[in-house]
Amino acid sequence: MKLNEIVQKLNGKVLHSKINLDAEVKGAGGADLMSDVLASIQPQAILLTGLCNPQVVRTAMMADVLAIVLVRGKTPPVETVQLAEKEHIPLISTPFGMFEACGILYQAGLSCLERPVSDQDCFAS
After folding, report:
1. What is the CATH classification number for the domain harbouring 39?
2. Is-contact 49 31, C-beta < 8 A?
3. Are 65 and 57 contacting, i.e. CB atoms less than 8 angstroms apart?
4. Number of structural domains the chain divides into
């Protein structure tokens, strides 16, 4: 599925112009904890999240995330948009909540690109 199809299916708003909307997307994952993104989201996935601070872009860079979709119609601070643009990471906002946005993409045939984590991860201090 191409990124432009995802934008369309999610009634998305592209938040900066330095992106390739023809990029092929193989799957997605949703998380609000950036430690979960680093532990479980596979490279080249799109990340659906409710976080909109610059840290989400930095984490996406480290996790080799293809694009970030902000759920619940969130508008990120200017710093987040500027960092995403500088790093050429598409930043998209959708009016849908996390559950619904993930469901729409899954139903459209997008694969889950989340790895399972061990029970040990829940008890780490």
Report:
1. 3.40.1390.20
2. yes
3. no
4. 1
Work out the burial of residue 111: count CB atoms within 10 Å of its CB; fewer than 13 is exposed, 13-18 middle, 19 or more buried.
Answer: middle
How far is it, in rounded angstroms, from Cα 103 to Cα 59? 23
Beta bridge partners of 30: 48
Phi, psi of 21 (to 5 degrees): -75, -10
Task: Cite the beta strand spans of 7-119 per DSSP E.
Answer: 13-14, 27-30, 46-49, 67-70, 91-93, 111-112
pTM: 0.90
116 domain residue, yes or no? no
Contact assessment for residue 106 and residue 25, using Cβ atoms and an 8 Å cutoff:
no
3 state DSSP class of 82: helix
What number of residues does the chain have?
125
Q: List, for residues 30-46, the tens digit of each pLDDT value.
A: 999 888 888 888 888 99
